[in-house]
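Please predict the structure of the following assembly.
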Amino acid sequence: MEPITTPKTFFAELLHRDWLANGILELQLRRPATLNYLPGQFMRFHYKDLQRDYSLISHPDAESMDFCIAVVDGGVFSNRLARAEVGDTFQLSGPHGRFVYHRSNNPAVLVATGTGIAPFVSFCRTEKKTIALLLHGVASTEHLVFSETLQKSVDCYMPCVSHPAGMEDRGEGLYAGRVTDYLEQSLEKGAYDFYLCGRRSMIRDAVRIIDTRFEGSRLFIETYD
Amino acid sequence: MKIYTGTGDRGKTSLFSGERVPKSSDRIEAYGDLDELNSILGAVESLLEKSQKEIKSEVRHIQSLLLEAGAWLATTPESDSVQFLTPFSEKHAKELELSIDRMSADLPELKQFVLPGGQVSASFAHIARTVCRRAERRAIDLVNQMDKPAEPSDSLSNILVFINRLSDYLFVLARYCNHIKGDGDMLWNR
């Protein structure tokens, strides 16, 4: 590991685009040879007067910079990305952010909702077998992207499906409820390193539970709304 | 980006190294003082004449360095997280010394105590100086609390020297602000 580096601005070419699930897009852009980043950092996309931040999901040594993007109904930016074609170029700046993996003796617990899973994909591609538990909160099982990669890389991968209709294909290893329900009711008390990535409402609720139930824990937070 | 998360509403906050600590803890007080100092430096910079380009730029550079120093104070020194911090070089204190010498060369020799005040920019530089001294005291307290026999890292040692030198810089800057306006020092006549 190395100190967090100074961001650069550059143009990058789209190499590949794929739909991972309904409304969830994966983009691969050419990585400049001089760009170094840490798992968990994000890049800022610039388009006209707009800018949006997206976490990298790739291994820092990979040849491409990969992103997992929620395409929002009516969202100018994400829909521009959804329409992009291979060979299009985008202006980016980065890497940004300090939401990186800090090693310690505490078991690491990663908690994400929706595409908040993105930085953890990069963690898991880099920090194999040092993560005790990963909770991924989704409304429906179809949004459980990267489940194979995640399952292989952590001791316990627990999708948390909050919408009953999303549980029709319920199988072993699924939790019916929110990630915060799991923290409150199912995670054994103790000191952990918690990494939270998702909407502020989830993070606010999770921190309240962590402060109450998991004294001595460390906490790292990334919000995306 | 929204700036509020609501995660600090119950009086705790997270250090860069992740520990949840009371907002009144020594470490938060220490980097809070650097934040206060940085804000006053913003006022000093805005009060300097446009013609003082070099000093304005110098003050902005110091503000950036204070953010880096704050990140060090917001990190438990024994944690693995220090690897992500930018090393704080000893050259930053040396740069301050050069600036002090450069400004001092234009100032009359000081034979009496001066009263903090004069031009608005000078007065704010004096406020910054006193906050800087407090920040230094808090930072020293933190380093003294480190697990013995651990020695502070080079970066932490360099930060202590930098903060000490910065208060000298701000004293000279205050005098310089009065001097370039032709007012000179406000001397303590007792």
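The longest helix of chain A spans residues 200-213. The interface with chain B takes residues 1-4, 38, 53, 98, 100, 102-104, 193, 200, 203-204, 207-208, 210-211, 217-221, 223, 225 of chain A (CB under 8 Å).
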